[in-house]
Design a protein that fits this description.
Shape: rod-shaped
Strand content: 15-25%
Structural class: alpha+beta
Oligomer: single chain
Bound molecules: 3,4-dihydroxyphenylalanine
Number of strands: 9
Helix content: 40-55%
């Protein structure tokens, strides 16, 4: 009987030495220590042994059981330690590796110019007034003194919605009527930034969508001298103190008189080059004294009130500043372009 116990012990120990998996360890336990294991059978059969053999066999059987339980616990601890070690080396994090850089976004070049323009006008007391992109024919044209069939409509063709008379604005000028109707008869000093749309052949010089910044000052005793002084101040702040400017007579239906503002070409210093098309000057905005009809449409008595207005294109200003030769870059979403700003 004792020999049998020794055999049980050695076999179990040998089997345990080959156990590498948690599941096999479970099976080993059932087989060698479980209810129907050989060892349990020996323990169960103790009472059938001759009385004098019982103490010795019982003692040894219990020793074997304790030894196997201890061996099981040791093996289990070893397996767990190995598993942990493997997991640690498999999932190792090398904290000394430099992190992967997350590409930082930045402001779009047109937005950068817009913010610069806002800041300049803010210093001069002009509020930002937001006006809608979807307009009516009345606001985009009629109320700005551009009746149907007026030839000036040709330069402002646009996209029409399926609702008759509702369109995408071709310029920020309709905002003039909206702000005047809201504020009349109070004096006004606002800029009106936003997207404009035109039905155009897309080319290096024309896009179907672009920003404008409109400006409007209305009050008593506002003269053309105010227009010139204010716009000159803007040009100096935007392009530097030394910039030379000139006002050139122009025509817009909503202003009278009208003028375009040029700055001296900063590429050639006025001598004439490819950028200024040999004129020495670069056009930066359109402007004029608000037409009496427009003042009236806005709710101001043109006998008492006057005002000046202007409109500029931030993309155009950005193109001049950075010598960008193709306006299509602005919405092409090409990182090679955008990352330069
Ligand atoms: N709305 C004009 C355009 O889109 C720009 C403009 C010219 C606006 C003269 C004005 C202005 O307010 O006085 O071409």
């Amino acid at each position: 009987m004792i020999e049998n116990l020794e055999l049980i012990l050695t076999r179990a120990q040998q089997a345990l030495a080959g156990v590498e998996q948690e599941a096999d360890l479970q099976a080993w336990r059932v087989r060698h220590l479980g209810r129907s294991s050989e060892l349990s059978q020996v323990l169960d059969g103790l009472k059938e042994l001759p009385r004098e053999q019982r103490p010795a066999v019982g003692k040894r059987a219990n020793e074997v059981k304790t030894a196997l339980e201890a061996a099981h616990a040791a093996r289990q601890a070893k397996l767990q330690a190995t598993a942990l070690e493997q997991a640690l080396s498999r999932e190792r994090v090398d904290v000394s590796l430099p992190g992967r850089r997350i590409p930082l976004g930045r402001m779009h070049p047109a937005t950068q110019t817009l913010l610069e323009v806002y800041a300049i006008w803010r210093e001069m007391g002009f509020q930002v007034y937001r006006s809608r992109d979807v307009e009516t024919d009345a606001f985009n044209f009629e109320l700005l003194n551009i009746p149907a069939y007026h030839p000036a409509r040709d330069q402002w063709d646009t996209f029409y919605t399926t609702t008759p008379g509702v369109l995408l604005r071709t310029h920020t000028s309709p905002g003039q009527i909206r702000v005047m109707r809201e504020r009349a008869p109070e004096p006004i000093r606002v800029i009106l930034p936003g997207m404009c749309y035109r039905y155009e052949q897309i080319s290096a010089r024309s896009e179907i969508q672009f920003n404008q910044v409109e400006g409007l000052a209305v009050g008593e005793n506002i003269t053309f001298a105010d227009l010139k002084g204010t716009l000159n101040a803007f040009a100096r702040r935007m392009f530097g103190d030394q910039v030379q400017t000139r006002f050139r007579a122009a025509h817009f239906p909503f202003t009278e008189p009208s003028a375009e503002l040029d700055i001296e070409c900063f590429v050639c210093g006025g001598a004439g080059c490819g950028v200024c098309k040999s004129t020495g000057w670069l056009e930066i905005l359109g402007s004029g004294m608000v037409h009496p009809t427009v003042l009236l449409n806005g709710g101001y008595d043109p006998q008492r009130f006057s005002g000046f207005a202007f409109g500029m294109g931030p993309e155009r200003l950005t193109m001049l500043k950075h010598r960008i030769e193709d306006i299509r870059y602005f919405w092409a979403n090409d990182l090679r372009f955008l990352e330069q700003f």
